[in-house]
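Progress against Task 2.4 (sequence-to-structure conversion) is shown through the following example record, which the project officer requested during the mid-term review.
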Amino acid sequence: MTDLKRLPSIVTLQHIAKLSISDDKPVLFDYWTASLEKKALVGVRTTGEKLLVKSADEYTSPIAKFYKSENEYIIVTENSIYLVCASIPTKKIS
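Structure tokens generated for the chain above:
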């Protein structure tokens, strides 16, 4: 399977399910494919606040927690839980 068609690991999916149940937050895969295609990034504002970003108009609420599992990051924001590839780039944003 090519990396662009790669699915998250079973272990990561189990972790994300537990987190979703315990935190009562939905799991969103909006950024999964974009992270594999390098079309999404973790944006860091000058204040240190971090967000998942696809474009100037499409980004998440601030990231509260990062968890590393296998080759993925589980990212928890105020309202949701996102799953992205661990090779997602980080960039300063304004």
